[in-house]
Structures are given as structure tokens and as C-alpha cells.
Design goal:
The chain has 340 residues and is α+β, with helices and mostly antiparallel strands. It is 24% helix and 42% strand. It has a six-stranded antiparallel beta barrel with strand order 2-9-12-11-10-13. Strands 6-5-3-8 form a four-stranded antiparallel beta sheet, with no helix packed on it. A hairpin with a 2-residue loop joins strand 16 and strand 17. Helix 2 (99-123) packs antiparallel against helix 3 (129-151). The chain is elongated.
Amino acid sequence: MKRKAFSLAAMALTVLLAACGGKSQTTQTAVETEEVKPAVKVAKVAVRPVDQVRDYVGTVQAEVKNNIAPQAPGRINKIFVEVGDHVRKGQKLVQMDAANLQQLTLQIENQKVDFARVKELYAVGGVSKAEFDNMKMSLEVAESQYNNTMENTQLLSPIDGIVTARNYDNGDLYAGAAILTVEQIRPVKLLVNVSENYYSKVKKGDKAIITLDALPGEKFTATVSLKYPTINAATHTFPVELTLPNSNEKVRPGMFARAELNFGTEYRVVVPDMAIVKQPGSGERFVYVYNNGKVNYVKVELGQRLDDAYELLGGIPDGATVVIAGQGRLADGMEVRVEK
């Protein structure tokens, strides 16, 4: 009887131990499963107003650039200005050899005497109207030729500006290249190529902020003075001309410039920069979106960088939860656990 009671007790103890051992193993498996899920940190994204600011680069150009040269070869008697000199419109810059001009002057004086005599004879019927008209036309042609020769003997500045090039010395024979170059640098202009997406947003008179590598720390305000009417089919951009007053002449042609244009405000989803994942071997960007314990790999289109965040042009809805840490061990559709 005692032996039977002992056997029953032993059996009960065995069952109890087996039950406890099974419960412990189940708990351990659950813990191990939880530990297998990658840990991530998440953040909720939202729509907010974003200024549509875009940067463009270009080279500063003079408002007007004139090459000073006669129409025909000739000897340069004297150049009156040097590179860097400011000149006024109508100022005499170059004196060419005047031999042809002197010959024309004598010719016109003789023709004027002859024309005066013919005019007197015509008044009393001494010559025909045809003879009178021919003499008059001949004098007019000579005077026109004189004026043209004068313009090509005394070379005047067509604009207010600054001399930026001199290619000859006194006594040289002009042989094709411009003798001088005069540029108007009040104002100056900048030509930038803007994406066709903004064609309807660019208006004449819009403002732009200009910065230059040659003048660090300084900013200048320019105005849209011209919007070209066609789109370049190859680049899908259109040229925009920006004019900068440059009253102090600090900005000079040839300087490398950056132009900042603001196309208004748009409401965009903004995500932390830590959420952006670059796909290896391509320029595509992705974000892991967290929902109900799982993550999904979503392609996004980035806009401009905003400090420690990015504007999104598409891909993620307002209010979504995105992964901002732990992406290295993730895959599309994977279960994860969120760490605070």
C-alpha cells in the first residue's frame, strides 16, 4: 500500500515538472521571437508651408557691350583712353588718319561753289531742272560720304560706360579687331535657365537675391527684366534675364553669381533627413513607413533640403509614421519593434 502511494506521488511530481518545463520553454520562445524583430525609432510627418526657393548660377554680363572700330582699314593717329577709364556717350575715343576726310572736305567745298553758280543760273533759266537736280544730288551724296568718313575718322563712345579692352597702340594700322571695347556696367545683367515647371510663375519685375563668390557675405537685389517666350526642348528650361542696378559698380562682368528666386509657398510633407534611404546603385530615394508593427519600403521624390529635413514632392501622405533610425537591418514588409 505504501509502495502504491509512493508511485502515485512520483507520477504527480513528474507531470507537474513537465508542465512547468513546457511553460518556461514557451515563454523563452516568445522572448526570443521578440528579440529577433529589429528595433527602430519612428517619427510622425506632417504637411507644412514651404517657400519654393530655387538657386541658379550664371556669369554676370554687361548691360551693353560695344566694340569700337572704323568700317575700313586705316592708320590710328591717337587713342585718347585707357582700360579702366569711364567714358560718356559722345566722347571722342580714337582719332584715325584724316587724309581721306581732308580730301572730301576740299571736294565738298568745290561742289558747293559749283552748286551755288548752277542755282543762280537755274533761277534765271540758264540751266535745265535736270542739270540742277543732278548737281544737287551730287552734293548730297558727297556730304553723306563726308559724314560717314567723319564717323570713321573720329570714333565716339555710343554709351556711358567703362573701357574694358584696348587692342592697339598709337600709330598702329587697324586691321579688323576692335580698337577698344566699352561696356555699360550700370546696370549689369545675369542670364539663368529656369525649369519649365515654373514658367507660369515667373513675372517681369519679380525680385531675386544675388550672391557672388568674389564678394563673400554681400547680397544684391536684382529684378526679372526679361522672360524668354520659348522653352528649350532639350533641357526643358527657359532663359530669364535678371537686371542688377549696380550703382556702386561693385559687381563686374565675368563674376560667377548665384541667383535665388522665390516662386511662392506650397504645402508639402516634410520628413527628417534621417528617414531618407538611398538605394545602392541608383539615385532613387526611399523611406520606411511604419504601420501596425510592420514597415514598408516607399519610394519618395525629394524637393529642397530644409535644415535637418527634406521637402517631399510625393510618396508619403500627411500624418504617416516613418522610421528615422535602424533602417540598416530592415526589409520591405518586415515586422519591427519600436523603441522610444
